[in-house]
Write a structure and sequence with these properties.
- The structure holds two protein chains of two kinds.
- By secondary structure, chain A is an alpha+beta fold.
- Among the domains of chain A are: about 85-205, no CATH class; about 320-485, Barwin-like endoglucanases (Beta Barrel); about 500-620, Orthogonal Bundle (Enzyme I, Chain A, domain 2), CATH 1.10.274; about 630-770, Topoisomerase I, Chain A, domain 4 (Orthogonal Bundle), CATH 1.10.132.30; about 810-850, no CATH class.
- In chain A, helix 16 (about 500-510) packs across helix 18 (about 540-550) and helix 22 packs across helix 24.
- By secondary structure, chain B is α+β, with helices and mostly antiparallel strands.
- Among the domains of chain B are: about 1-50; about 135-220, Gyrase A, domain 2 (2-Layer Sandwich), CATH 3.30.1360; about 325-365, DNA polymerase, domain 1.
- In chain B, the strands form four sheets. Chain B has a four-stranded antiparallel beta sheet with strand order 10-11-3-12.
- In chain B, helix 5 packs antiparallel against helix 14 (about 275-290) and helix 13 (about 265-270) packs antiparallel against helix 14 (about 275-290).
- The mean pLDDT of chain B is about 80.
- Classes of the chains: A alpha+beta, B alpha+beta.
- At the A-B interface, strand 1, helix 4, helix 10, helix 25 and strand 29 of A face helix 2, helix 3, helix 4, helix 5 and helix 15 of B.
- Strand 1 of chain A pairs antiparallel with strand 13 (about 350) of chain B.
Chain lengths: ~850, ~375
């Protein structure tokens, strides 16, 4: 057995490659632009030369003798007929030319200062990082750029100009790359250091290319189309251009062609080499395919979200994963995930055969891949993988022994990671225990929807199977749902009862009185077997039923949603009702206390039981809403109507006053603004009042019950359905734009009345007028746009934050440090507390005092 | 009795944070026995111990997520401030982005000026103060310009009542103008100022340019203070301004410098230093988050503020700021402008020691945070 090797790479150094190194490292010199001969076989000395690696099956790399996918490929090179500028170094070349003497090649800094700067930079790179050194260099170099006399040889300096992208001029005459190279060669090693470059491994003249490195073919594979035609990679195309032009330039130089022609070809070579490195240089037309779409050359391969770095290096793809639609299952545990049988039979977990599990695994192998639970593959100690089929089964069973690895199907209780995008926080990927179920969807407990931000309108989720013990242990201990109940964002629970579960418990603890039979039935249904805490009487109060779930030694004092006291003494709910404030997500104060006292596993279990209890209550009691709930009494209707009418009249009066010029402006406002403000105020007042009236009457409706206990909806929703939708506002104002002087052509110009400015006086039950509907649509569209614009903005903010802070961690001494060990905080959050281990970010002093003194309140 | 308790509590100073100690002192019932007190304190220390962060915890990412995740729930709107219509407040996501970018000129700079004793209760004195600091340009005072082509003079009529409000006369105006504009003669009458060219050549264009120039000329007040608004805040009156000039305002004798502040982080950094800027970042971000009805623990915001101020200067969470400071080439390259970073790394012969997260992800090695930090050695039999 080979021991696991950790951290193979210690560091990566970067450097500029020298022409000599390019030649030394090359497996082949490329001399011809031809790719294949008549038989379709790669040409020697062509761009697809077999010495550069293989991309066709059956061929063998001439350099290392390996086959396709085994040979990594090798670099080649071409010798450029004339040197060209490397486009990515243009800025540095310009800096060097401007700051060095044209005749002696020294930096334009007096000798004594050179010494000083060298010492300074050496010191700087010792104590500080490169970034600060870079800044120092910038300061130094910018000071001397414009000196017009060399302090070393007193030669007069001409001004160097650049004509983008790569032409340099010295006092109106162009500097050819040959001349530039000659100048760069003269720069001394010490001076190179002052420019901040790596003087030991870098020479400035390398920035002018005399040799071009040809990437291996494996990095630019060609694809064979169905017609048998070959389609070459963008890079190969570009290299072909370079080789072709280079060839022509050679021939022309040798044939002694006129200087103009050579210059032209040289320019063309420069263009091709430039676009080979970067096809998005601002001043150059990008090289294109015949179809017109720009070629993707080296820079484009690395850059951007789809580039090598972000797409392939920072982002990885995995095997052993699945993705399908999710659906709810309130009956499975909080920690569980329902996995379709078909997935459970395709994904596998490798299990090593040992003395203890040999018989078990043999059975699985015998079942094979088609019978659940079975196994799909066997890996022999020599690393050979064998597929289990009906034919191979016998043989495998025969030779199966310790040291073999069986890749078996998923079974109940296995560990899996479950994830939903966008993965905005750590609770977006949690560990679940597998429960294999029939059907084709992943099933999850509705209580964990919140951390994933999932719903069941067609959402899909991803599913991963950790493949070794370390990963499984880590997932299970650190990522299991129950360990993530408390959010690190604010220290309260992110999972809790939702919807029916809250409503059920609310009704149970508020008003229900059950017979003993019913109570026992309910409790048994949600998994309670010890019914001893149930009082020994025939009529049992809902609160008492709920109390059975609580641990006997649990005490809690809090408030429910409407501010009434909730008191639990010795596991008995004495007063108050159970609603969103104590059971729900993002609040769940009672749950938070239970979590702290009894731990994650107990909380998850209790949460399951409470949810089931609530749902069971509702199933038995029955709970529904319909249009009937929205029906108002005749007198309520008139009352509402009167309230609205009054407000409308008030607005009209204000408008009249406004036109009559009698309206008093509020301080700091114009009269028109005052009018708007006062109308808005009057109408909102009317809306609130009618809402109150409607709700007063709707006392017993299911809709109101839900709003009250916080399971769904709010009183405003009810008011909008039964009484009045109210004023629609765009950017905090009444609707004003649209046509000139009016909102819709249906109204007269300058109509300031409520109904012409987006006031919807109908309710959703009675239905909306066409104009009202349109106003509603306007605000709806505005809200939609707002979300559409916000998502990418906040996404970018998140990306920036996470990139900036990803390497901050708590060191062993409790300080927060970055990757290079610099201290960012001496103690995390100034007190060293983990938010997810506190209550809303603080230690509850009050409660601890209470606990110790045993005093009430 | 109470003092005894406090002394006993103080003994735990090293083990508990100050805020907890403070709260204990406040919450402790006077009748508590000595034994109970020790019990309370010991329980607190234990609770504090269990709530400590684990070494290796990836707090940076947790903070980033905690701020990034609710970002989608924030609104984009700018709100008009009660009172003056020109006074807006940038809130929600744009404001958060603005702060984290460490922008030098923010969209809606504002100041809250608290005043000292007699001024903050007396609305009249306060109003006078407000008028004094408001930047007034000549253009605001002038009511009419007339350019006389024949005489080559520019006559400006001044709004006299406004002038009286500012306690100024036309003579004062001329003085200010003369100090700033050369080459013109200015004569003042009661409510008129006449400008004529003093030199030889008379060009109409010069006069016209003069007119445009003096329009923008600052006559009184603080530079940058565009609007003032006296507001009641609790028991006292304060002045809200749009546009800031913290340095000059703080120098005024009426101003209570301990509470006066601005929402311009960069200005705070320049006037009061990094620590103040850090505090300002925390305060401003928290204000936005609170206004949006979101719940994010301060610790997360603190961490962002700390990393922004870690170098002694305010750096934005951008490719020019915090990310640029990273030691790892690959970490920088994986954020933005990868090519630039790779080229510079090559020229400078930079070495990436693979100490942070992304680099190790890139080369498929365990990341050095959390459980990737410790090594485990097992003795095989």
């Amino acid at each position: 057995m080979n021991p696991e090797v950790h951290k193979k790479i210690d560091s990566i150094s970067f450097a500029v490659i020298s022409p000599k190194m390019m030649v030394d490292a090359a497996a082949a010199k490329i001399v011809t632009p031809e790719l294949y001969d008549k038989e379709g076989y790669p040409v020697d000395g062509g761009l697809m030369d077999l010495r550069l690696g293989v991309i066709d099956p059956g061929l063998i790399c001439k350099t290392d003798g390996l086959k396709l996918k085994e040979s990594l490929g090798h670099f080649g090179y071409i010798e450029l007929a004339r040197p060209v500028v490397h486009i990515k170094f243009v800025r540095q070349i310009l800096d060097l030319l401007r700051s060095t003497c044209k005749s002696c090649g020294r930096i334009l800094i007096p000798e004594e200062k050179v010494k000083k700067y060298v010492a300074l930079l050496n010191k700087e790179s010792e104590i500080e990082d490169l970034e600060s050194r870079r800044r120092k260099v910038k300061d130094i170099v910018s000071k001397y750029k414009t000196k017009d006399k060399c302090p070393h040889c007193n030669a007069k300096q001409d001004k160097i100009k650049i004509e983008k992208p790569y032409n340099f001029y010295e006092a109106e005459t162009r500097l050819s790359p040959i001349e530039i190279r000659a100048r760069l060669e003269k720069i001394s090693e010490e001076d190179v250091l002052i420019f901040g470059f790596d003087h030991k491994n870098f020479r400035p003249e390398w920035m002018i290319l005399t040799v071009l490195q040809i990437p291996p073919v494996t990095m630019r594979p060609s694809i064979t189309l169905e017609s048998g035609e070959r389609s070459e990679d963008d890079l190969t195309h570009k290299l072909g251009d370079i080789v072709r032009i280079n060839q022509r330039l050679f021939e022309n130089i040798n044939a002694g062609a006129p200087e103009v022609i050579i210059e032209d070809l040289w320019d063309l070579l420069q263009y091709h080499v430039t676009t080979f490195f970067d096809n998005e240089v601002a001043q150059l037309p990008p090289a294109r395919h015949r179809g017109g779409q720009p070629l993707k050359t080296l820079s484009e391969r690395i850059k951007s979200k789809e580039g090598r770095i972000r797409h392939n290096l920072a982002g990885k793809r995995t095997d052993f994963s699945a993705r399908t639609v999710i659906s709810p299952d309130p009956l499975i545990g909080l920690n569980e995930v329902g996995v379709p049988l078909s997935i459970a039979m395709q994904l596998t977990i490798p299990e090593r055969v040992s003395d203890w599990n040999k018989e078990h695994l043999k059975k699985l192998v015998e079942s094979g891949p088609k019978k659940y639970p079975g196994a799909n593959y066997v890996i022999k100690p020599n690393g050979r993988r064998k597929t289990i089929t009906d034919e191979t089964k016998e043989e495998i069973l025969e030779e199966l022994e310790e040291g073999f690895i069986v890749e078996r199907h998923l079974v109940d209780g296995d560990v899996a990671l479950f994830n939903r995008q966008p993965s905005l926080h750590r609770m977006s990927m949690m560990c679940h225990l597998i429960k294999v179920l029939p059907g084709n969807t992943f099933r999850l407990n509705p209580a964990v929807c919140n951390p994933y931000n999932a719903d069941f309108d067609g959402d899909e989720m991803n599913f991963h199977i950790p493949q070794n013990e370390e990963a499984r242990a880590e997932a299970r201990i650190l990522m299991l749902v129950e360990t993530q109940i408390i959010s690190p964002r604010y220290g309260l629970s992110v999972v809790g009862c939702i919807h029916d579960a809250i409503t059920g418990n609310y009704l149970l603890t508020k008003e229900l009185v059950l017979t003993r039979n019913e109570a026992v039935d309910l409790l048994y249904n949600c998994g309670v077997e010890d019914l001893s805490p149930l009082p020994d009487k025939e009529k049992i109060d809902g609160k008492e039923v709920f109390s059975v779930l609580l641990p006997r030694d649990f005490n809690f004092l809090g408030e429910d949603k409407s501010g009434n006291q909730v008191k639990i003494v010795n596991g008995n709910l004495k007063s108050g009702v159970m609603d969103k404030a104590n059971l729900g997500q993002e609040s769940g104060l009672m749950l938070r206390n239970i979590y702290e006292k009894y731990g994650p596993a107990f909380t998850a279990d209790l949460l399951g039981k409470i949810s089931k209890l609530g749902i069971a209550v509702l199933t038995r009691r029955g709970f529904s809403i319909g249009v009937g709930d929205l029906e108002l009494l005749e007198e309520t209707k008139t009352e509402i109507n009167n309230a609205i009418k009054k407000a409308e009249e008030e607005s009209m009066k204000l408008i009249d006053e406004f036109y009559a010029g009698k309206l008093q402006a509020l301080p700091g406002r114009t009269v028109a603004e005052t009018l708007e403000l006062r109308i808005l105020e009057a109408l909102n007042r009317a809306r609130n009042k009618s809402g109150d009236i409607a709700i007063r009457q709707a006392k017993d409706s299911s809709a109101l019950t839900m709003a009250k206990c916080g399971s769904r909806g709010n009183p405003l929703n009810i008011a909008q359905m039964t009484a009045i939708v109210g004023q629609q506002a765009l950017r905090g104002k009444r609707i004003e734009s649209g046509y000139k002087g009016r909102t819709l052509s249906y109204f007269k110009t300058k109509d300031l009345s409520p109904k012409a400015r987006g006031f919807i006086r109908n309710n959703f039950k009675s239905g909306l007028m066409p104009s009202e509907f349109f106003f509603g649509a306007m605000t709806g569209r505005d809200a939609l746009m707002d979300t559409a614009l916000r998502t990418p903005k906040s996404g970018y903010l998140y990306r920036r934050l996470s990139n900036a802070m990803q390497d901050l961690k708590v060191a062993y001494d409790g300080s927060v440090r970055d990757a290079s060990g610099k201290i960012v905080q001496f103690s995390y959050g100034e007190d060293g507390l983990d938010v997810s281990k506190t209550k809303n970010g603080v230690i509850d002093v009050k409660e601890i005092i209470q606990q110790v003194t045993g005093g009430e309140n | 009795m109470k003092n005894d308790h406090e002394k006993a509590v103080e003994e735990y100073a090293g083990q508990l944070s100050l805020s907890v100690l403070q709260e204990v002192k406040e919450q402790l019932p006077a009748s508590i026995s000595k034994a109970d007190l020790t019990k309370v304190m010991d329980t607190l220390v234990a609770a504090h111990g269990t709530a400590k962060v684990n070494p290796g915890e990836c707090v940076g990412l947790v903070s980033a997520q905690s701020i990034g995740e609710p970002g989608t729930q924030m609104t984009l709107n700018t709100f008009h401030f009660a009172g003056v219509s020109e006074m807006n407040v940038t809130t929600g996501l744009p404001r958060i982005i603005e702060i984290f970018d460490a922008r030098k000129d923010i969209k809606t700079p504002m100041m809250e000026i608290f005043l000292k004793e007699p001024y903050h209760s007396d609305i009249d004195r306060l109003k006078k103060f407000a008028a004094k600091i408001k930047e007034t340009t000549f253009g605001e005072l002038a009511s009419e310009y007339s350019l006389n082509i024949f005489d080559q003079v520019l006559k400006v009529t001044v709004n006299r009542s406004l002038l009286a409000d500012y306690d100024l006369s036309t003579k004062d105006l001329v003085k200010v103008i003369k100090a700033k504009v050369k080459g013109f003669n200015a004569e003042s009458s009661d409510d008129e100022i006449t400008f004529s060219k003093s030199g030889k050549t008379q060009e109409l264009k010069d006069l016209y340019n003069l007119k445009e120039k003096i329009k923008e000329l600052k006559i009184a007040g603080m530079k940058g203070v565009k609007q003032v608004l006296p507001v009641k805040r609790g028991e006292e009156y304060i002045v809200l301004t749009s546009g800031t000039n913290l340095k000059d305002i703080l120098a005024l004798p009426e101003v209570d410098g301990t509470r006066t502040s601005t929402n311009d982080i960069y200005e705070i950094f320049e006037v009061l230093g990094v620590e103040a800027a850090r505090e300002a970042i925390i305060r401003e971000v928290f204000k936005v988050i609170e206004a949006q009805g979101l719940n994010i623990d301060v610790r997360h915001i603190m961490l962002v503020a700390d990393i922004m101020c870690a170098t002694g200067e305010v750096k934005g969470v951008t490719r020019y700021g915090v990310v640029k400071e990273k030691a790892s080439v690959l970490a920088r390259a994986s954020f933005e402008t990868p090519i630039k970073h790779l080229i510079n790394a090559a020229l400078e012969g930079e070495v990436d020691h693979l100490t942070s997260v992304v680099e190790n992800v890139m080369i498929n090695q365990p990341v050095p945070v959390g459980t990737g930090l410790p090594g485990l050695i097992t003795k095989m039999k």
